[in-house]
Amino acid sequence: MSYEVLARRWRPLTFDDVCGQQHVTRALRNAIRLERLPHALLLAGPRGVGKTTLARILARGLNCAQGPTEKPCGECDDCVRIAAGTSLDVQEIDAASNTGVDNVREIRDSVRYAAAPGKHRIFIIDEVHMLSQAAFNALLKTLEEPPPNSLFVLATTDPQKIPATVLSRVQRFDLKALGPAEAFERLRQIAAAEEIEIAEPVLRALARESAGSLRDALTLLDRLTSGLGSTIGEEEANAVLDLIDRRVLTEVVEPVLARDAAKALQAVRGALERGIEPSRLGAGVLEQLRDLIVARVVDDPGPLLDGSPEEVAELQERARPHAPETLQKLFRVLLSRIEDLTYAPRPDHVIEMAIARLATLPDAEEIGRLIARLDALGGDSPGPSGGGAPPGRPGPGRAPTQSAATAGAPPAAPPPPEG
Q1: Which residues does residue 43 pair with via DSSP β-bridges, in sequence order?
Q2: Strand 90-94 to strand 40-44: parallel, antiparallel, or no bridges (unpaired)?
Q3: What percent of the chain has pLDDT over 70?
Q4: Helix axes 51-63, 22-33, angle to 10 degrees
Q5: Residue 91 three-state SS
Q6: Measured distance CA(376)–CA(88) in Å, rounded
Q7: 355 near 252, Cβ under 8 Å?
Q8: Quick one: pLDDT at residue 370?
């Protein structure tokens, strides 16, 4: 029996199941209910956020035996066939593999055939931005005036590559990447349903590493269960997925904040000896500095930080003694240094020197105290008469002033005449 990966097993079948895209599902449901669905849609967004899934749910809603409906039953013949990808009324085209004008002409010819009574012909074109310019031109007339009961759903991860002539003929919906909290909650629900015992920090790490793509997060979870079974601990997960334990990052960042360069470099060397790539270590330290800045300047940083309430409280406690300017300067300096990692012959040396630089930077508060002290010394220095600045050189066009010793002396007598 073949194994079905989690991303396919947990693909949403209704609008209610879609995670994190309420702004799009609400609009599509209203369009179905009010019978105001446009004939061409564009679903744009990052990979793995539900573009093709939404297109299939929309197709089921239109062709369901109880439809058109915003809540397809999932049990009638049409719903089952659409879910299995065998429906004759729903055609999916991969534009990345079918980029030419001939492929679009086949679609255009297929549009001429009417759907079954009461049904819709739906054409889902995935990665539509990969079509050639000639293919886009061949599609224009069909997009503008399709036959009755025909619907085009275009999906793309790069809408900037779609010609303006196409964009003007479709109604666009932008899907967003999932936030860490949304992805974590969905992963927690799926893990519980699959009877997977997994540590909470691992789920948060999966949500963070997936960068808002739930499909990527489920792929990582599949990778863990394949290697570790149904009981997954934090250390084992970090080893399998090459994740960086946040405690390792803390061991680097804390000496930097304490201006202990020796201890910071020892922590960097220890992280590199564990097999952590210099680029990943630099990105991890940069992320933790960002979290410290947020924890320092925001009263309620919980929604902006990826962590449990205890971890958020710990970040706030660590950030409190440090001025926001100091943390921001550390962030900027590290960002400028890690850009050299890509082309450096020894990236490990680059990250070591970057951390050493951070650990030897003066605090913003210390710089402020020095400036204030210099200002005070400059204002208190006495002049020749006990206060004020000493006399300077005369400016241009001004005669030098007489000294106090010569100001009251009589003028010198003129020399006697000759002869």
Answers
A1: 155, 173
A2: unpaired
A3: 86
A4: 20
A5: strand
A6: 84
A7: yes
A8: 58
The whole-angstrom separation of Cα 218 and Cα 225 is 10
Instruction: Reply yes or no on whether the pLDDT at 223 is more than 50.
Output: yes
Burial 374-390 (b: 16+ CB within 10 A, else e): eeeeeeeeeeeeeeeee
Residue appearing with tokens 């910071």: 264
Mapped onto helix, strand or coil, the DSSP state of residue 125 is strand
CA 24 to chain centroid, in Å, comes to 20
pLDDT-based confidence at 142, cuts 50/70/90? Answer: confident
DSSP secondary structure code for residue 49 in this structure: S
Token output for 111: 């549009």
**C-alpha to C-alpha distance for 181 and 388, rounded to whole angstroms:** 62
Q: Which CATH architecture has domain 246-364?
A: Up-down Bundle (1.20)
C-beta atoms surrounding 408 within 10 Å: 7
Report, as an integer, the average pLDDT of 334-358. 90
Q: Is the pLDDT of residue 387 over 90?
A: no
- The DSSP H or E segment spanning 150 is strand 150-156
pLDDT for 42: 96
What is the rounded average pLDDT of the residues 303-330?
90
Ranges for all domains in the chain classified under CATH 3.40.50.300:
7-174
Query: 339-362: string of b/e by CB count within 10 Å (b at 16+)?
Result: eebeeeeebbebbbebbebbbeee
Q: Which CATH number fits domain 180-241: 2.40.37.10, 3.20.20.30, 1.25.40.10, 1.10.8.60?
A: 1.10.8.60
Report whether 389 contacts 383 (CB < 8 A). yes
Residue 60: band (very low, low, confident or very high) from pLDDT cuts 50, 70, 90: very high
The arrangement of secondary structure in 7-174, i.e. its CATH architecture, is 3-Layer(aba) Sandwich (3.40)
β-partners of residue 93 are: 125
* pLDDT on residue 414: 56
Q: What number of other Cβ atoms are within 10 A of residue 370's Cβ? A: 11
- In angstroms, what CA-CA distances link 296 with 246, 251, 305, 362? 18, 19, 12, 19
Question: What three-state secondary structure class fits 173?
Answer: strand
Contacts for 230 with CB less than 8 Å, ≥ 6 apart: 194, 195, 196, 197
pLDDT at 385 over 60: no
